[in-house]
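Notes to self, T9SS type A sorting domain-containing protein:
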Amino acid sequence: MPSKTILLAAICLLQAKYASAQSVNNVTEIITDFGGFFQSSTTAINPVKPDNSHDLLAFTLSGTRYSTGVDDALLTARGLTFVAGQYKGLPVESLGTITDPNTKVGLGASYDGVPNGASSPPPSNNIPFYLRDGRNGLNLGTGTANAPAGTLTFTISQVVPAAAADGIPDILVTQFADPSSAQDRYQFLDANGQVVGNTVAVTFTNIGVVANWTADFYEASKNPMTLTSGFTRTDRPLRLWSADLSAFGITAANASAIRGFQVLLSGSSDIAFVAYNAQAATFFNPPLPVELTAFGGEAATTQTTLTWQTAQEVNSAAFEVQASTDGRTFRTVGRVQAAGTSSQRRQYSYQHPTTQAGVRYYRLLQIDQDGTSTTSPVLALTAGRKTGQPLQVTAAPNPFGSQLVLTVAGAEAGQPTTVELLTLAGRRVHQQAFPASAGQLLTLELAQLPAGMYLARVAVAGQSAVLKVVKQ
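result:
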């Protein structure tokens, strides 16, 4: 039998080899759009700690910087060199029933609109949404901590054989809280569910910190979620791991057999997203359940009329109409049945009887058939003013380039107008007030706005409308 000394030496050698393999896959730099531009690395950690949504623009692995395709123009404008890429978050649809009382939704401390405390009501308890939100699904400011143990399986229609040996990273994994020694595992599958190549396990305690952020950790085992003092506005490290297909034993010979990708969660995973190289593999990427394209309303003396529109719906159950007097604390005042599943444009309306004077605030809680929900942006409507036809806003062209031109119809002529641009997560990125002399054709200069999808909220003469716009 080999001596104990030889066995210990062999174990140490294997540990050293494994640690070295982990360090090779350590992402050493990230660039995001927090505050317009945020850059941090393992050797020069940025003292700024992001506390809201921010999308990953680029990352550095083994000395090479790769863009994610979210905003290459901004990287170029900053004089940065990079290999152009196209990365997308895995299309997580469900994590099943959460039974772990330690599972939390991690959100930037200012994400809920309350920089130091919980909002009322709290953000939606919808973990799958937070794992695929942001541009290309790459929002680093939202996710789940201590995700319940389980298996996520994704369908792949094609893997490019040449990508197996090109050295370009193909899988990108995030860790945004306190890592444990527990390992998440990742593997590719064939049509029969058998592993192609080999399984890769990642231990994040071996990965260097690339940045720090400030977060709230809501209790996901409760609905509505709660936020305790010990998890309010807390600082956490951010780590990323990435690897080429070859790390999974994928070669040009076996790549064509791949039909799926699987994530085996350990039960202590802290994930903002898991992303893949869209230039190397084609994943089945179903749309988010409901695409809300417009939300508007009109406040009259005795009631408020709300209207909204969807472009598509998948397993939608209902819309709850929520009202507020202060824009922070909302209560449900009505419910409208949804279409279920539809690829057609759908129009909805609801009348809320009320005599409240001053500003009225409204939002929609869209509820899916599996019980998950998402919240719309907030409408602010002024009561007690004379209003004309319902407010109608169009954007042309849409998608737009450096200028966004909005045409406002149905509102009273000669009224001041305010336009806000929001991310799909509700973060305001631009606000502009137009005087009465601007008329009904509003031009916004947005050359510096990162490319992506936004919600334009227009308020005029006591009315408000929201429409979806896309910056190229």
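- The chain has a mean pLDDT of 83.
- Helices lie at 4-24, 72-77, 127-130.
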